[in-house]
Amino acid sequence: MATLFDLPDLVLLEIFSYLPVRDRIRISRVCHRWKRLVDDRWLWRHVDLTLYTMRPKVMWHLLRRYMASRLHSLRLGGYLFSGSQAPQLSPALMRALGQKCPNLKRLCLHVADLSMVPITSLPSTLRTLELHSCEISMIWLQKEQDPTVLPLLECIVLDRVPAFRDEHLQGLTRFRALRSLVLGGTYRVTETGLDASLQELSYLQRLEVLGCTLSADSTLLAISRHLRDVRKIRLTVGGLSAQGLVFLEGMPVLESLCFQGPLITPEMPTPAQIVSSCLTMPKLRVLEVQGLGWEGQEAEKVLCKGLPHCMVIVRACPKESMDWWM
């Protein structure tokens, strides 16, 4: 009868890739073959360290011993709610990531205090930067900062970053490679600030505005005025009306549109009104409705029948994992 040791290397590597980092290191002590497999470059392309409260010494060891040039994406947790004596992410660590990990493309920081970490210390190779429940300084993303910082940045996710405000949003305009922007729970951003920033971010191809204090109508108006090349839109339906939908009519290259609940107001457009507006968008191929209670109801049938050329997805609210931008 075959055992785990009889499996080919490629199968074992696939199995090991699902293990947390700590367990990967532990199994390297089982035998010489497993040690060789744990050292394989493929296994360390994507690393998630958010599961651990990790001392800086351990993080430096992982960086030097395992990750280095192999690393393509990294999820890293901070200690924002662990007290003043807890270790914090440092500028030195960020700079070391940039020096030792030349292939690092995606960095996701969770619950981290970045107020003392200048944005200039982040790896210049990043194409995606995600901040989840992080603290940033007032000058972190402001437009006056060095325009050569993060020259390759294509996507930024700002999820529950309480200090983020209009000035920071305006600062994003210096990232000329930026094509994807996700704002989640950034309640300090105003309608005026969004409109002014999108005017300079006209090259965006994906915009998601979720859980903010902005009304859906004002967001759609700003999109229709400034983002004529946008291909994907996702937003919560608070303040959405039939008039707001009209702002989107005729969008020339919009391919995917998602409305997310659970807030429903009397002004909420009917399924028939949504169909009418969507039919004016020549490239639309995906319509998604989440958390409006329409799944299995007459509303879902109206959408599917009225938009036969589209993939219509009607489902309940996404889970609380905050993975809604993926």
TrEMBL record:
Where the record annotates domain F-box, the positions are 1-47
What Pfam family is a match, any one?
Answer: F-box-like
Q: InterPro entries attached here?
A: F-box-like_dom_sf, F-box_dom, LRR_dom_sf
Question: Which keywords has UniProt assigned to this entry?
Answer: Leucine-rich repeat, Repeat, Ubl conjugation pathway
Q: Which parts pass through the membrane?
A: none
Metabolic or biological pathway, per its Swiss-Prot or TrEMBL entry: Protein modification; protein ubiquitination
Is RNA-binding given among the entry's keywords?
no
| GO CC list | cytoplasm
Supply the name of the protein: F-box/LRR-repeat protein 12
User: Species name for this entry?
Assistant: Neotoma lepida
